[in-house]
């Protein structure tokens, strides 16, 4: 019997797969490799190249691998790009999730851990986001993730589906040098690529109402995130109570300027970031409480900011 990880060849998904392996839980990966990398999947893990939009394929995977639960990470994750590609975003994230849930129902697979996002909150007007903070997504991506949560909740009423959704904030770092974040949109890859190319990293806005004037965000280490998925899956399988949603947040924040200082210290590259104009829609601060996840999912920040930067830098350099 196995758990299926959709999107398991991606940066986050590959770490989740390794976390399951570390607990001795068999895993099968389904990924269309649109953004994932086959090389991120460890030897010995069953890999299926395919899409969550292919219901027949999903049902065959469930049958062949005796799947007992799903961790659903597959989807289109670029919030900014989703504004230009809303139909693609909804197809991948909403239609894809509905297709997956239909295949699960047909195969009597009744447990799912869903990869949601802080994007469901939009620009919150509170210092510390909780699961009850109002949801005002500001992109098709954020909207699609909120709809995904609704689909799970509705399917639970209809079929008894056991589920929980994990809302991520800024996921960084690496649990192994073999896996790096290849995103062309995330802060760490942008800064590292600039330094490796001999360019100066940019800070977008230094006049926010924050201690140093730069945006404050909630950064969490990808290995900590992965571990929470395993605990969530184990609780679902054991029939233990779980909340419908959890914020995986630090309860604290790190500014962009602090990130830049940490990068300079870890890499040994002395640089002063270039100040650029603010980007439209960037809130001054987004930080979430992880108290509920700490209570139920053994969630805690096991890695410091230096750990996050160092592990991410080592993985990026190993990638060449």
From TrEMBL:
Superkingdom per UniProt: Bacteria
EC id: 5.1.3.2
This protein's pathway: Carbohydrate metabolism; galactose metabolism
Keyword Transferase: no
Annotated Gene3D superfamilies: NAD(P)-binding Rossmann-like Domain, UDP-galactose 4-epimerase, domain 1
Catalytic activity: UDP-alpha-D-glucose = UDP-alpha-D-galactose
Keywords on record: Carbohydrate metabolism, Isomerase, NAD
Family classification: Belongs to the NAD(P)-dependent epimerase/dehydratase family.
Cross-referenced NCBIfam families: galE (TIGR01179)
Protein's recorded name: UDP-glucose 4-epimerase
């Amino acid at each position: 019997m196995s758990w299926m990880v959709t999107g398991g060849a991606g940066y986050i998904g590959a770490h989740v797969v390794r976390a399951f392996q570390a607990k001795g839980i068999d895993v099968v990966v389904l990924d269309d490799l649109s953004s994932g990398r086959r090389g991120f999947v460890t030897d010995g893990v069953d890999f299926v190249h395919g899409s969550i939009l292919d219901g027949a394929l999903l049902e065959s995977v469930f049958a062949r691998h005796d799947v007992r639960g799903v961790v659903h990470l597959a989807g289109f994750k670029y919030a900014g790009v989703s504004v230009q590609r809303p139909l693609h975003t909804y197809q991948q994230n909403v239609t894809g999730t509905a297709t997956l849930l239909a295949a699960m129902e047909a195969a009597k697979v009744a447990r799912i851990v869903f990869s949601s996002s802080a994007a469901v909150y939009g620009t919150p007007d509170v210092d510390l986001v909780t699961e009850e903070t109002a949801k005002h997504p500001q992109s098709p991506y954020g909207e699609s993730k909120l709809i995904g949560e609704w689909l799970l909740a509705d399917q639970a009423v209809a079929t008894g589906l056991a589920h929980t959704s994990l809302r991520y904030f800024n996921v960084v770092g690496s649990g192994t040098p073999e896996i790096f974040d290849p995103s062309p949109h995330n802060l760490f890859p942008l800064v590292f690529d600039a330094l490796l190319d001999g360019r100066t990293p940019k800070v977008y806005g230094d006049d926010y109402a924050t201690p140093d004037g730069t945006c404050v965000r909630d950064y969490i280490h990808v290995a900590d995130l992965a571990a929470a998925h395993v605990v969530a899956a184990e609780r679902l399988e054991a029939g233990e109570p779980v909340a419908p949603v959890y914020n995986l947040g630090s309860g604290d924040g790190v500014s962009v300027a602090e990130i830049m200082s940490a990068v300079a210290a870890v890499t040994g590259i002395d640089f002063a970031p270039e100040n650029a104009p603010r980007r439209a829609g960037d809130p001054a601060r987004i930080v979430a409480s992880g108290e509920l996840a700490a209570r139920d999912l053994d969630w805690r920040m096991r890695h410091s900011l230096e750990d996050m930067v160092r592990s991410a830098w080592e993985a990026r350099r190993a990638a060449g």
